[in-house]
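Curious: explain these tokens?
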Amino acid sequence: MSKSVRKIFLVAGARPNFMKIAPIVRAMQSRKNSRLEWRIVHTGQHYDHEMSQSFFDDLEIPPPDYFLEAGSGSHAVQTAKIMVDFEQVCLKDKPDIVLVVGDVNSTLACSVVAKKLLIEVAHVEAGLRSFDLTMPEEINRMVTDAITDYFFVTEDQGRKNLLKEGKSKERIFFVGHVMIDNLLYQLKQVKQMEPSIFETSRLKDKLGKYIFLTLHRPSNVDNLATLAKIVEALNSIAQSTPIVFPVHPRTRKMLEQFNLELSDRIFQLPPLGFKESLFLWKDAQLVMTDSGGLQEETTGLGVPCFTIRENTERPITIEEGTNILVGPGMEGIMAAYARFQMGERKSGRVPELWDGQASERIVEILERI
């Protein structure tokens, strides 16, 4: 391989990662005579078909060059497994740059391995902070950014956070958001498809008006008292507006374990592919979620969003977007919904550089550095 060519590993492990590497892959595929040679490394952090392979198919991502099959386990077990296997891949293929996205265990594990092997690290979605050290994702974000060489930030607050932490401004690049790149690309496709192609089209037509819900964070679903209050609020809300709920495997397990019952007006679905999910939530009256990515995507399309968390590492979705932080308590959820029912709608705007071109900017910078 010519010395002028730089080999890049694109690391994906969990479902949100797939959505973020997809537009980067497309941007790299579209460039002729590029000096970048890339490989996809799938750590297998989400390992069952519904939560992983279907997303590769749905997002048109090529099969991974490496699949580490990390599987589930405690944070320590999973992180250690990824580190051991990823080290072998790096020693074999010798990348020049490891590009990680987001804040999952794979992000942290592969960054540490790369840095100890003297491989440069690029972090997409760098600088986001919730300042809540009880969140595993916050630890992953902080540690990854502590050893990152090139920081690609989605919003100005991320840049400010990194500068406060002493990072060099020359290595911080405000590029926009690859999640929005993917959203706009997929939205165009969904609009061109016949609605009948989607398995949920009949349900969507039947309900007309509905709320779209996702819920999966351990802080919400692993604690009986917290989950019970959320379920109580959801069951109450569903009496006036039906809720469409693709149920995460973790959440389903905890609902069964705690013997909590959802209203029959909460329509439970299996995990959905990206297009199927977008087909539903883009036309919802309201999205309720504890997902980081969905906070941003709803802001990108101007859909009202309630975030069922105490804090968010994505403040721009509240400051400029359509997101409202309602907390995990029943009182906060119900008070926000009552205002929503009375016609209060938060008007937001699309943040700067959330224009579908973030991946192009990232690839241009990678070719330049």
Q: What stands out?
A: The two ends are 18 Å apart (CA to CA). DSSP finds 16 helices and 13 strands in the chain.
